[in-house]
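Database export, one record per block. Field names are fixed; values are copied verbatim from the stored entry.
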Amino acid sequence: MIQKNLDKLTLKRVNPFQGMIIDDDIWRDSHDYHRNHQRLHQLAVHGPGIVTGLEISPHDPADLSLIVNPGVGIDMDGNIIVVAKAQVYTIQSRDRGTIYITIQFREIPTGPFQPPEGGQPTRILEAYRIQERYSLPDEPYLELARISFDPGRPAIASAIDPNQPAGNELDNRFREYSEGQVKRELSVWHYSADKNRSLHLSGLANLAREINRTTSYNVMLNSASSLDTALVNCSLLYFTGRAKFELSKEAKANLQAFIRNGGVIFGEGCFQDQQGSREFGIAFNNLMREMGNKLEMINPGHRLLQNVYVFGAVPAGANSRGAMLASPRVIYSDSDYGCAWEGGAPNVPLSRENIRSSFEIGANICLWGH
């Protein structure tokens, strides 16, 4: 990638001397040296791709519009693309096919002008262009998303299964990230249906620290005391307990909206109370079934066992005979990884291998869909 663009990035400095005439060519060469040096640095040290942000989300209410969120990227020529504010983009195409949503660096001559009336622009605004295309451009670009577009459907939606987006769902699998990117933020919320509102919270904090240390994500951990209010800025909800529970209509509606907007729910009980853990599991699965989420057993080869760390089968947690079930946006486990992330129960410490594999499957769960 870098080698292809070296001929565009010749570094030639101005050699000043007494009496040199400064004209527009010399002034341009002086500035181009610094611009080319910066572009070469971006390509050689960081590489092209998305640095941070630039996520695409459906418009609310859902229609054929998209939200391009603020962020920074580096194109294949080393130009920096900055989107300072969220932008609304409406799909114009009316033909069936794969649509590529791209962003490209653009220079826009602007004022003040000399002379003021009808003169030359004295500034160049470094801006961008967002486009939809049926093929990727030959000139430098960043792909933000692609959509298998069906003009017969009235709206664009987040993918129910991010690994296999359906028609008119946002496909983020082909976004390329700069090697020198800042860490992407991942918001994880903890909710306990138990009297002990901090059940498994310390284990989840240990998992967050491990993900921050070993991946390109920075986990922001929060705790919800109630689900009766909407989950805002949340990527994954860790839902735990050790007894049967019931939720209000408001809480159920909030969870449905959370899933519909792309959130993931991970539920598991606490095996230190085996009967209570079973009761929690039954209540959780009944709740998910009521909400229209059919959970199926995870078997070898499932994508959840391969999306970050590779497993041949579901690893053991504090419960060595646990199982895991999943739908595209909901995961349930009775392996009790929450206790494993704390090293096991006080009277039943776990092996280092068991703890390590629990952290790794925890990373797979937290990054599911990212």
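Remark 1: Residues 24-46 form the longest helix (23 residues).
Remark 2: Residues 45 and 169 are 34 Å apart (CA to CA).
End of record.
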